[in-house]
Amino acid sequence: MNNLLPSQAKPSHFNGLKLNPLAAVLLASFSLYPAYPAYSAADLPAASRPTPEENALPDLGKAAPANNNTAVRAGPGGLAIESRFERQKVILSPEYSNQTGASLGVTLASMLGENAAVGVLLNLGADKKEYLLNAGYKIDERQRVIVTAGQLTQFLDYAFLSGKENLGLTQNSGALSYQLQLGEEFLRFLEVNGYVAKTESRNLADKTFAIDSATVFELWNDPRRIAGGQVTGLQGKLGFSPLKDSLIKVSLGQEQLKYDLQSGDQRLNRATGGVEWQQRLGGGYQLNASADTYASQNNYKIGLERSQLGADGRHSLGLQFNSIRGRDGLGNDNQFKLTYSLIFGTGAIGGSNRSPNATMRFPATSATSVNNTFGTGQANGQMANLLDQVAQRPSVIPSHIIAKIDQSALPTRLIAVDKASLPTGSRIDAATGDITTPLGVAVTGIAGVTRNGAAFANTNQFALAGNNLIVRPNQITQPPVGVVDTYVVTINNQGGGTTLATVLISHGSVKFDSIVITQGGSADLTAPVTTAAPTISVAATDTTASVTQTINENGTGYYLVLPAASAAPTVAAVKAGTSFAMTAGTPAVVSLTGLTASTAYKYYFVAKDAANNDQAAVSTGLAVTTTAAPDLTAPVTTVAPTISVAATDTTASITQTINENGTGYYLVLPVASAAPTVAAVKAGTSFAMTAGTPAVVSLTGLTASTAYKYYFVAKDAANNDQAAVSTGLAITTTAAAGLPAGYVQQGGLTWTPNTIGGWNGGGGYTDWNTANAYCTSTTINGQTGWRLPSKDELVSLYNSGALSGQPGWELDETWSSTPYGAGAHYDFGLYDGYVSFNDDTDYSYVSCVR
């Protein structure tokens, strides 16, 4: 069988928040709670008001009322406050849950002597039952321990693929809590909790379900299993009082969560944490809110409680909303709870029957403290008294069953039917998968059945119902992988003749490929014929080829491509390859892709017809050889451009080498020009290059005494360009022949060194009029016709780099012939390329040009 998941959405376990009638009744009950008058410290005379230690909030779980140990009584001097120590406590708590409906909680707690207490907590409903036993012991004035054992049973809805199931599961749990009083001021107490809760797994009976679409019917088996969970945790909690009449409790811990999956245990280690806030509001009211995250669920609570004093004891009424958000597929729940509690003593209020050891002492904050004990409340950070604590449900024990649907228990497909291949009028039974097919004629009985041409013992796999054929898939054996079984059912017609039903069954559960009804004659048992053997229709490239073949009837072709040296495959091996539809007498084209370049293959082909008759032999392997892969790699410059013949005043020779045949390109630019792009160099001069052979480029037409840079790039015969231009090679031409040292030819001009005049003690600088007269009237180097250069000509000289290394030049301010208003001319800084101006009476250097 195939473990395949059906294409169906995973059901959700989410239950939305709904305010039901019972919740409305609980809210109304809370608001109408008038049994006894409420007292607060503000109602009492100043001398009689309780100390901060008495204005306390409770510690664990549900809040115990304020003024836990205090009663108000009329006396001779007016109102008086009397203290007593309670011995018993009763709590009634009706509850409504979205998941488990209504239930009733009953708690009975009692002191056992001076240092011990026990509490029994029951919660009973139709879909929820919980039993908890708390035992507490006071070690000394600052330390106590609480031991808890319990069992929770819940009936919850689990949405399996085969449908929803309401199941009751039981969870056993235990906890140990150690509590230490730390002080009376900001930091109050430390609590350490260790706990464990475990739910056993449950295996349900398998259930079948159908998935029916327009084209396919499937029948699945759902193994239905609930994976039980176990959580083991350790948590630390600190209580502190940042504000008057308030308590903040912060918890941190670690839990290990384990689910018992069929595929093996799933283990999760998660940090836990939470915060709880309790606030006295006056008038006997107290607000409680908390948020906790655990490995299996997150809990959010908010509640309001009101305490009352009566003649028979202390009463309190509380309303709480609890939202449980499951993790890892666990369900959610919303719970409303109304709590009524009564604490009463063994004697009258103010009597002598007190239990001074029922609470735990901590150091007093002042000499006037009336009751420096662990009170029942905690507005000032005190821990709850022992009786209150054993009456509360430990918050660390999961309040929701830890169990989820085991999705590792995969459903199995039993039957698959191609509905499009069934004869018109066929029906499928959704419960069993049985197929009913009309035969179209009156029939009398089944004459016989064959499978793959051999006689088959029909043991109710095929039957008749009137003039219909019944096929029972759940009684047909699945064929091996790659095999298709052909069943032919011969049916006698009323009045003579036969009807044939051909049923094709393939692997993948019992998969019905087709049912064909044929009136009279015999079944097709002849294999198709290859009328045109496979040939290459499109020549192979480095990764592709195209092959064409033809058969004599409609059917399916199969092909397999193997390396040329591989052994010829069997028919089954080729049929396990790639399939394609074929039409009788029509060439079928197969496009081969993903081949490897420069590789020899053989192509093998086999066909079957619509009646599932396979060709007995695979076609002779057709040779297919791919071409070499195209060259996509750019050439590499193995020897970078170098000067092979030193530069003259107008020429130079450069040599470079690449690793394959191709074309080189070069571009020569003035040294100060920006580096060119690959495209710019390729737009320059080209020359042929042979792999590994130095290519020589002769540069001509250069300007004497000029600095250049030579740039190079190459491409190969496949037109792959180098990605980057070579680093510019520096070339500086020499001075023109016949010129003295320092004379420069640039821009079509001959320049004299700018110190040739020798003015000012040989420094070579003078005023503009003297400089101009010198250049225009002096024979220099045996030549006349000299003049001062223009501003732009000086700029061009600077940018050309021709002055680099030339003797007789001062890289300083040099006169130009370009006027700047009256009595001034531009000069040019040969050291920084900056154009400025000077009055004609100022001094600058002089270079003459012609």
Please mark out the parts with pLDDT under 50 across 5 or more consecutive residues, or reply none: 1-86, 346-383
Largest beta sheet: strand ordering? 3-4-5-6-7-8-9-13-14-15-16-17-18-19
Overall helicity: under 10%
What's the assembly state of these chains? Answer: single chain
Largest sheet: 14 strands, antiparallel, barrel
Number of strands: 51
Global shape: flat
Structural class: mainly beta
State the end-to-end CA separation.
102 Å
Tally of DSSP helical segments: 7
Q: Radius of gyration over alpha carbons?
A: 51 Å
What is the residue-averaged pLDDT?
A: 83
- The portion of residues forming beta strands comes to over 45%
Salient structural properties:
850 residues; mainly beta; 14-stranded antiparallel barrel; eight-stranded mixed beta sheet; 7 helices; 6% helix; flat; disordered N terminus
Task: Walk me through the topology.
Elements: H1 21-31, E1 70-75, E2 78-83, E3 88-97, E4 101-112, E5 116-125, E6 128-138, E7 143-160, E8 163-181, E9 187-199, E10 202-203, E11 207-212, E12 216-222, E13 225-240, E14 246-261, E15 264-282, E16 285-293, E17 297-310, E18 313-326, E19 333-344, H2 386-390, E20 403-405, E21 412-418, E22 427-428, E23 435-438, E24 443-451, E25 454-455, E26 462-465, E27 468-471, E28 484-493, E29 498-506, E30 510-519, E31 530-538, E32 545-551, E33 555-563, H3 571-575, E34 578-582, E35 588-592, E36 600-609, E37 622-625, E38 637-645, E39 652-658, E40 662-670, H4 678-682, E41 685-689, E42 695-699, E43 707-716, E44 729-732, E45 744-746, E46 749-751, H5 759-762, E47 765-766, H6 768-777, H7 791-800, E48 813-819, E49 824-829, E50 834-839, E51 844-845
Parallel strand pairs: 21-30
Antiparallel strand pairs: 1-2, 3-4, 3-19, 4-5, 5-6, 6-7, 7-8, 8-9, 9-13, 10-13, 11-12, 12-21, 13-14, 13-20, 14-15, 15-16, 16-17, 17-18, 18-19, 22-23, 23-27, 24-25, 24-28, 26-27, 28-29, 29-30, 31-32, 32-35, 33-34, 33-36, 36-37, 38-39, 39-42, 40-41, 40-43, 43-44, 45-46, 47-51, 48-49, 49-50
